[in-house]
Specification:
The complex is a heterodimer of chains A (159) and B (705). Chain A is mainly alpha-helical and 159 residues long. In chain A, 53% of the residues lie in helices and 0% in strands. In chain A, 37% of the residues are buried. Among the domains of chain B are: 122-256 and 279-346, Spore Coat Polysaccharide Biosynthesis Protein SpsA, Chain A (Alpha-Beta Complex), CATH 3.90.550.10; 629-691, no CATH class. Classes of the chains: A mainly alpha (159), B alpha/beta (705).
Chain lengths: 159, 705
């Protein structure tokens, strides 16, 4: 969705967006794109649109947020996490650790920039990207098998 | 008595351990005559000590023993018993090596022939603390590649257990882990975790691993930060574990390698020449009660979790508190629970690195001294097996023997001083017609001296001769092995008094309540400048000079008697400085001196280690925080490896203040603790820092750069 399409809806958020807010949205989008190693005008526009959508739809509960920056960051995070969920077919992409792992995988897969155009594009077929991400996924630890290692006593014999 | 006969009573071992129907009998760890072996070894040691003590009493007591001479005899006897045990261990080892016999089965030595693939799941764990990540991961990668070549890679995982507190090394470790996973295509095979709190040092690090991930595995092979093992060695260890269900620990004898300073090369040489002799001798009489040396060993995970949780000793450190030298204690607890601990001398392909110079060697010894001195308290704790107590005792004696030796020499000096003050009495006691002539005991003294020195150096000399006469002498520098052996003997004779003084100082320091910190070992070929050596050894030099002056005053003959010791003390800074020289070490290599098989024809694993080290030579540890701010990948990786949690209000404020400082004064203005604090949470990108934004959320990370 572009500025024009938002504006075409008539009484919209974009129509009242101040220059400062525009700069804030663009800066936020740029920061998030850089954090994913994406350098694409289309992807940038998609991110900006996602942020404007979030503000327009008031989907973020602003009352418990400290600043507009937080609202925008949360919106960007949610937009990317939703897109990653679509790409990978996983539902748990919003969690901090999983999100970061997917970010790592995307950065590794996108070293030569081949997936930049795909970023945040919901309409594309993402099967190849999904496979590329699964190949690049890091696994820091195996499954947790918690158990207790009891302290031995120097007072008794082993049973 | 057979080893089987020495097995703890049934009922003390879990049922699954006695089910060995599917075990390969050719690798069964059992052998004949365990009791006889120990009776022989201890009997011979006691007999030799008794003879030496009698000889000493005879020499000193020719004209009646003074009290000081009795003290000398007492110290001499204790020291000699220590030497004697080592001597007979060496002699047995020489016989076994000469006849090419397996130290455990006493049958002809043959390589392990595995039948079928491994059935167990194994993990190689590498606990690290502020170590050079390039070196740690180079060792891991060399071992991994070697393991892959065996075709048994699926039976193994690798796990780096970081306790690192240096922020820059922490980030470098994460990056090195990711690179290793990527380069080796080993995602899901090489793991990494960093402990937020590093309580109880290395043993706490392993304990935390045992309580979280270890139960995924049947066995764990413990590496040190500088360990490298061949795939064959690791697979063989796992195979031995599978086929010896009562084995709790199997220790391989690690060969020191990789350093090039003269000091390290001398030690590497003698460890390679004489180490197998001592390992074979130890294995011969320890059998299933061998010790654990803390690394390059395989451990049965379930047994370790069940019975090796270390107790906390009552009282304050250094003698109380958490156990520092955990390896001996873990082996003792394994034995206490009925599991066997084996040392397998023929397990080759196991390497470690030595400190590059005498000062770093002494620093390591200071740490070990504190740990081993704690074991004095465990020697008398209930429930441990007698041989476990002996291992504790040997550990204590490896340091306490130094002050005992020093006391022996000092008491000898005092005794000689007293004797020179006495006037000989030809008619002592009651009236007699015949004078009591002075007795000349110089021949007996010579016998005693040769006897003692022989006990000290004979096994080593025979080991050197065996190598010289063996088929593979070329790997040790050909006939130059004799010159290497001679120079090593001379060097160790000069170094011994220095270590005696240092160890005595360490023991005194521990007994007076001083503690050591926890630092990573120096793992480069670092030299010691002469001034630094002089500063370190100044007390030793003064003692040497004063002692020498007293000896000259007492008796010139006595001075010459002491001269080898005095020479070591007075020459200590020169010895330390020149032996730390990389140039002299390399020159010695060119002259075929102190050559080891690893240098002559380097195994594939060590070549891989050198290659990987060289490749990562430029990958210096950078400023970790700056890296996270600038590099999106490093930032994402770091965020992904952090535990999911939310800072409390106070922490959030502290982090905000640090970011403010970072924005205003730059990365250099932050202290190590400040860096550690902000690295403990997802790190903000540069533009946010400069904008002075200071919010951190646990739900969603901030974007990075």
């Amino acid at each position: 969705m572009t500025d024009m399409t938002i504006a075409s809806k008539g009484f919209t958020y974009a129509a009242f967006e101040s220059a400062a807010m525009t700069r804030l949205i663009e800066d936020t989008a740029r920061a998030w794109l850089r954090s994913f190693g994406v350098n694409s005008p289309q992807a940038s526009q998609r991110m900006i649109n996602a942020l404007r959508d979030a503000l327009a739809e008031d989907s973020i509960a602003a009352s418990d947020r400290a600043s507009m920056q937080d609202i925008l960051d949360q919106a960007a995070h949610d937009a990317i996490a939703s897109w990653l969920a679509q790409v990978t077919g996983e539902h748990n992409c919003h969690g901090s650790s999983r999100f970061s792992m997917l970010r790592c995988a995307f950065l590794s897969a996108n070293r030569d920039g081949i997936w930049s155009e795909h970023f945040l594009d919901a309409k594309r077929d993402h099967r190849d990207l999904g496979m590329a991400l699964s190949v690049q996924m890091m696994l820091p630890t195996p499954g947790l098998v918690a158990c207790e290692m009891p302290r031995q006593s120097l007072e008794r014999r082993a049973s | 008595m057979t080893e089987a006969a020495n097995t703890p009573a049934k009922g003390t071992i879990p049922a699954e351990r006695s089910e060995d129907a599917f075990c390969d009998p050719t690798v069964k760890l059992r052998g004949p005559g365990v009791g006889s072996r120990r009776i022989f070894l201890f009997g011979a040691s006691i007999a030799a000590t008794a003879y030496a003590a009698w000889l000493m009493t005879d020499v000193l007591g020719a004209d009646q023993l003074t009290i000081m001479e009795m003290v000398v005899v007492a110290f001499f006897t204790i020291n000699f018993a220590w030497i004697s045990l080592s001597f007979f261990t060496g002699i047995v080892g020489l016989v076994l090596r000469g006849l090419k016999l397996d130290a455990i089965t006493l049958k002809r030595l043959k390589p392990i022939a595995r039948k079928g693939r491994l059935r167990s799941k194994n993990v190689v764990v590498i606990p690290v603390y502020n170590e050079d990540p390039n070196r740690v991961f180079a060792g891991l990668r060399a071992s991994y590649e070697s393991l892959a070549a065996t075709g048994e890679l699926d039976a193994f995982h690798f796990f780096v257990l970081s306790d690192t507190r240096d922020p820059d090394i922490w980030i470098a470790e994460e990056m090195a882990w990711a690179k290793a996973c990527s380069d080796l295509n080993a995602r899901g095979k090489i793991f990494f975790r960093r402990r937020a709190e590093n309580t109880e040092r290395k043993s706490g690090n392993l304990k935390e691993f045992c309580e979280t991930y270890a139960a995924n595995y049947d066995h764990m092979i413990v590496f040190d930060a500088d360990s490298v093992m061949s795939g064959e060695a690791m697979v063989n260890m796992a195979y031995l574990m599978e086929n010896n269900p009562d084995a709790g620990i199997i220790q391989s004898p690690p060969q020191p390698t990789g350093r090039q300073t003269l000091f390290a090369r001398i030690l590497q040489f003698i460890s390679r020449v004489h180490g197998p002799t001592m390992s074979a001798g130890l294995s011969f009489w320890c059998m299933g009660s061998s010790n654990y040396w803390g690394h390059n060993a395989i451990i049965r995970t379930k047994a370790f979790i069940e019975c090796c949780g270390l107790p906390v000793l009552s009282g304050k450190p250094p003698m109380g508190g958490h156990i520092l030298s955990h390896d001996f204690v873990e082996a003792a607890f394994m034995r206490k629970a009925g599991w066997r601990c084996w040392l397998i001398p023929q397990l080759e392909g196991s390497w470690e690195e030595l400190p590059p110079n005498l000062i770093d060697f002494a620093i390591r010894d200071r740490r070990w001294c504190q740990g081993n001195m704690q074991h004095a308290r465990l020697m008398v704790a209930p429930g441990f097996k007698p041989l476990s107590r002996l291992h504790f005792f040997m550990g204590v004696m490896s340091f306490v023997s130094s002050p005992l030796w020093l006391l022996l020499l000092l008491s000898s000096t005092i005794a000689t001083l007293q004797n020179t003050q006495l006037t000989y009495s030809f008619f002592p006691g009651q009236f007699t017609m015949f004078p009591q002539w002075p007795v000349d005991r110089s021949f007996e003294m010579l016998v005693l001296l040769i006897f003692t020195i022989g006990m000290l150096v004979l096994p080593k000399i025979i080991s050197i001769l065996m190598v010289c006469l063996g088929r593979d002498r070329k790997q040790y520098g050909g006939v130059m092995v004799l010159a290497s052996g001679l120079l090593e003997t001379l060097y160790s004779a000069l170094q011994a008094p220095i270590m005696m003084m240092l160890h005595s100082q360490f023991v005194f320091s521990v007994l007076t309540g001083n503690q050591v910190g926890w630092d990573a070992q120096e793992r480069d070929d670092a030299g010691v400048p002469f001034k630094a050596a002089l500063k370190t050894h100044r007390t030793i030099i003064v003692i040497g000079v004063v002692w020498g002056a007293i000896a000259v005053f007492v008796d010139t003959a006595f001075f010459w008697w002491l001269s080898p010791i005095l020479a070591g003390l007075v020459l200590s800074p020169w010895l330390t400085h020149y032996s730390s020289s990389l140039a002299i070490g390399k020159a010695a290599r060119r002259m075929k001196l102190f050559v080891t098989p690893e240098e002559y024809d380097s195994p594939e694993e060590l070549r891989a280690l050198a290659r990987i080290n060289a490749e990562s030579g430029d990958d210096d540890v950078k400023d970790g925080l700056l890296r996270l701010i600038e590099d999106p990948y490093a930032n994402a990786l770091h965020s992904a490896l952090l535990p999911v949690r939310k800072p409390d209000a106070r922490t959030a404020i502290e982090i905000g203040i640090i970011y403010e400082k970072l924005a205003r004064l730059g990365v250099e203005s932050l202290t190590r603790d400040e860096k550690l604090l902000i690295l403990s949470w997802p790190v903000k990108p540069l533009d946010q820092i400069m904008a002075g934004r200071d919010h951190i959320t646990a739900e969603g990370p901030k974007p990075a750069s």
